[in-house]
Specification:
The protein is α/β, with parallel strands linked by helices and 246 residues long. 21% of the residues lie in helices and 34% in strands. It contains five helices and 16 strands. One of its GO terms (biological process) is regulation of cell septum assembly.
Length: 246
């Protein structure tokens, strides 16, 4: 691809990257340019996990899929989701990050922490919770990072992980089965909501199970209690409509 070629432009944003695509270039030629652009930028992205959005060109579902596959093939970029201007998740993500960056409640504690202020409705934890680290809160929790195997979040409210969930989450610890758990990548060792427990080794379609799909395109998911079982679904509007905040 010519160094002066502007058919594919990658720009960073608060939530990930936006790829601007030439509107008139034949798609097959554009696809080659996407491959070249991301191949050249692969060292810059390294193993970064982020959302992606496309601008400048209307893509069919098949074209978008082919572009994502090319990006996955030529780079180590982990794409958690594809955002567009009408995407509700984008608004939620932006608002969570904005509040977290301006909040005095951002925490970097590597040791066991307990938040005891009864007025606290939501706490933010910025960083990765590693094995042996525990974050506790009297309200809900938003983790701006990953929860690694052996890491744990304990909350009286709900838990949202804006990253990979591979550790343990105890939500609604005071018996609140209306609490829920959301993660951009849902692969937990254990989730407990209220008094209901699900482990990664549990069988049954409604229980949590580690997926065998190794695709780098991750789907945000939500875990909630229904009929004394923990269900995990894609984070879509119909799933959100079933959530009670009482």
């Amino acid at each position: 691809m010519n160094v002066l070629d502007n058919s594919v432009i990658i720009k960073g944003s608060k939530n990930g990257i936006t790829v601007f695509l030439d509107e008139e270039m034949p798609f097959e030629e554009l696809l080659e340019n996407v491959s070249d652009k991301f191949k050249n930028a692969s060292k810059f992205f390294n193993n970064a996990t982020m959302a992606i959005s496309f601008d400048g060109r209307n893509l069919s579902a098949e074209e978008e899929k082919r572009i994502l596959n090319v990006i996955s093939d030529v780079s180590e970029l982990n794409i958690v989701c594809v955002l567009d201007e009408n995407n509700d998740i984008k608004s939620v993500y932006e608002e969570a990050v904005k509040k977290a960056m301006n909040s005095f409640n951002i925490s970097h504690q590597p040791e066991r922490q307990k938040i005891t202020d009864p007025k606290t409705t939501c706490m933010f934890y910025k960083g990765t919770l590693r094995s042996g680290q525990v974050f506790e809160a009297d309200g809900s929790v938003v983790v701006l990072g990953d929860v690694n195997p052996g890491g744990k979040v304990v909350a009286k409210g709900s838990v949202i992980v804006l990253g990979s969930l591979k550790g343990n989450i105890f939500a609604g610890v005071d018996g609140n089965e209306n609490a829920f758990v959301v993660a951009l990548e849902m692969s937990p060792m254990q989730i407990k909501i209220g008094d209901i427990i699900a482990r990664s080794s549990d069988s049954g379609v409604n229980k949590i199970s580690k997926g065998k799909n190794k695709s780098k395109i991750l789907e945000p998911k939500i875990a909630y209690v229904y009929d004394q079982n923990i269900y995990v679904e894609d984070l879509e509007q119909n799933a959100l409509d079933d959530i009670s905040l009482d």
